[in-house]
């Protein structure tokens, strides 16, 4: 099949429901799923205030170098709805409270993004109108959160998503797109704080490890991605992102994270990721085999007509080759 026909055939807004039937019976943690890194930074604007996760020096630099700081803080251009439409099914969420607002939560990345209600309502609307699509919300970091804040956020998420939530279970391999579809469950919340760990509705951090590569160069990132090990029966997040250090930024002051990090990843790392496969991690890896992918995240996921999510979604077709069903696909 030519590239053009393939691109036309792939409906990014409902790629999960369109997957060949045998793949929908495979564990979700063994499928390839595109996600966005620091998903909600599109909501950061020139009027955003410095947030509690910022380096202290940002308070002094921000009034002077607002434009530059925004260029190095924003990691996504597309809003939540558009990310969903281009196939993104995993959102990396960093949350903070605001001192003068008792009842709100905000997205954050050094600067405050939007209050969370609008984006989460869009996710709810998306799953309501796209049965068969499953969205993972990874609550990664919390800033200025008290125990009460965690409980309040928990209550909010339970109210909003209720029966759509995929409860955690011991055997994650039992969860497939088909099994979720039958139960009309479409939202997985990973909650990386123990305060609400008694809540069976949310997944615990160890069910979807997301180690940080902490690399500012392509060769370091490539070698990280080739060598990272994943546990056998959990989900996993491969972070295909470069993290600029302060020195890196100072030397590229007039540029942006998009140009100096996201563009090189697309050019030099995505072709390598296209060689990865989803599937079950095995213990007998050798020097050329790599851990299979599950969730893969990147910055600026909409670039080049969404080539990133398209490439990751396509990896799932490799699963057909490894099954007895390959002729029916
Ligand atoms: C979880 O949240 C509580 C309350 O804000 C905090 O004290 C604790 O350090 C957090 N745990 C982790 C692992 O960050």
From TrEMBL:
The record, for SMART domains, names: PLCXc (SM00148)
Query: The Phosphatidylinositol-specific phospholipase C X domain covers which part of the protein?
Result: 22-192
- Gene Ontology MF terms in the entry: phosphoric diester hydrolase activity
Q: Which domain of life is it from?
A: Eukaryota
Alphabetically, which GO biological process terms does the record hold? lipid metabolic process
A Pfam family this chain is assigned to: PI-PLC-X
Matching InterPro entries, A to Z? PI-PLC_domain (IPR051057), PLC-like_Pdiesterase_TIM-brl (IPR017946), PLCXD1/2/3 (IPR042158), PLipase_C_PInositol-sp_X_dom (IPR000909)
State what protein this is by name. Answer: Phosphatidylinositol-specific phospholipase C X domain-containing protein
Question: Which organism is this entry from?
Answer: Mythimna separata (Oriental armyworm)
